[in-house]
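User: I'm writing a tutorial on reading structure tokens. Could you give me a worked example: one chain, its sequence, then its tokens, then a sentence or two explaining what the tokens reveal?
Assistant: Sure. Here is the example chain.
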Amino acid sequence: MRNCNIATLTLKQRIVTVKNFFEYCDIDISPRRFKLKVKLPKVVRKKKEALSKEDIVEILNICDNIRLRTYLILLAATGMRAVEALSIRIKDIDFDSNPAKLFVRGEYTKTKVDRIIFLTEEVNQQLKSLLDYKHRTRRVCHQDKQEGKTITEYRRPDKKDTDLVFAVYQNRNTPNPDCLYDDLSKSFAKTLDRSGKGDREDSNPRRRQISLHSFRRFVKTTISDLGYADFSEWFIGHSGSTYWTKKDSEKAEIFLKIEPYLTFLNVHQLERQGADIQTKVEELEQLNQSMRDRDKMKDDAIAHLSDQLIELTTRLDSIERRQQ
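And here are its predicted structure tokens:
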């Protein structure tokens, strides 16, 4: 089995499947004998490649497909799992709320629980651009078989709330997010190769060091480094602590604080937020300087009063000496 190039986890899963099949067929397997006769390889945990914000910006700038770019920005700003992001429908997005919200259906989550995710302003605008591009008026040419003529028409696809955001073709059968994953993962692999970041793992040449799951690790690490570890667990869809509970308004306030760190290509927004921060810093510096000046005035007044007190004490001493 070692020469079959099968991953250790895959091998263990196949053995579990075979054992379950034997039990279904009333074939008893002694766990003790199985452990003595069958030696399973141990799972080796490899170090995952860390993804920085600069790497994400470089990858996004190389994307020549608005569909892939929107998908990667969504993953990098929300930490969603790959199929979770592909399962969202148009009606699952609330563009008008502040901040914008995204509803994730529990059918496509790992924990099978519905959840709400906040969206940055950059992701909000990018999703709007993608939907406008998908439902734009386009020129369509087709041939009339009866007359043998080529007919040119301008058509605009119908927009339905139940359509998947990242699906290219909408038909009677709802597109499968897993099929969309195969398509976008191949496009992402080509993008990594163009950017020079398509290196593969030493132990598994079929797997790249940077994958779609790397964006999820980036979001978790970024939010945790800002001091919101419990919020990061909730944000990426982990169960987290049962004792960490906050209102939606409080969660939104925390998200607005971390939003600049999950923004990548919206330079104007970053510059505006940077200017606001710089203004606040200048105001704090002015306030600090005024407090220093005020303290200095108080110190001077105290020193002046101290000098006057010493002078009065000296005069009283001299008067007492004269009276003696």
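What the tokens reveal: The chain has a mean pLDDT of 85. The chain has eleven helices and five strands.
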